[in-house]
Amino acid sequence: MKFGAHVSIAGGIQNAPLNAAKIGCETFQMFTRSPQGGPALKLTDEILEEFAKNCVSHGLTDWVVHAPYYINFASTEERIRSSSARVIREDLERASSLKASFLMFHPGSAKGSDFKTAMGWCVEGIGKLLDGYAGSTKLLVEISAGAGEIIGDTFEEIAALLKGVDHPELGVCFDTAHAFASGYDLKDKKAVKKTFDEFDEIIGLKRLKAMHCNDSKVELGAHKDRHEHLGDGFIGIEGFEAIVKEKRLKDINLYLETEPDGVEKDLSVLKELRTSNAK
Q1: Which of 25, 69, 93, 213 could serve as 20's disulfide partner, Cβ 3.0–4.6 Å?
Q2: What is the domain-level CATH number for residue 32?
Q3: What is the pairing mode between strands 227-228 and 215-216?
Q4: pLDDT (tens digit, 9 = 90+) per residue, 150-182?
Q5: pTM greater than the 0.85 cutoff
Q6: SS3 of 185, please?
């Protein structure tokens, strides 16, 4: 289990590992393009070489990429669904050229449509974008907080999506704040065990490839996406201690998505929990 955080690519993607090393990351997450839209910067051989060199010089491994926020495979507009598939396929190819382990994304919102139709669009779009894909980066569906009509806020919905797409390259990213907001308790050892027992029964732990590690500004089942620094939210340190100590998660890396002003402290907290676990 390695600990990292989402870091900036300001000034160029090659700067991401430098920004990660500055705050004590062992791994990191980044965007490869603006999360709000616009054309993606070309990844030249020079950029790729400098990125790889910076990762090696700082001992960083297992970096991952987060897809842009505007993706929506469940949109009632075919144009948006097609664009989402194109962007995710592009990001998979870009992530592979950067040798990223995973690309995580949110399927989208079913607003304006019934759930069955929206899920069908998601399955169709994700299946099409993975058709013929031969890169090294694996695609991960991220659990959502359940706000509005977002697809993927329950284990059952994620399981249905995985079954529908039926592709070996599709896995799951578990976000602690999102899952908690969706009603999956993580406050202590008993709750963590129960939640991951349920995950294993419905989805299968073999599908779990990465975790976003965020405390929650909202209470259990509030269905709002609000990240908080570790120990300052409703999950609490006891919950994160249980996650770090959960043997079934020992090979799953944790990526923080908390505010930059306190993320270095969050990393220290995780490292302290790991050290105490080893004693």
Answers
A1: 25
A2: 3.20.20.150
A3: antiparallel
A4: 999 999 999 999 999 999 889 999 999 999 999
A5: yes
A6: coil
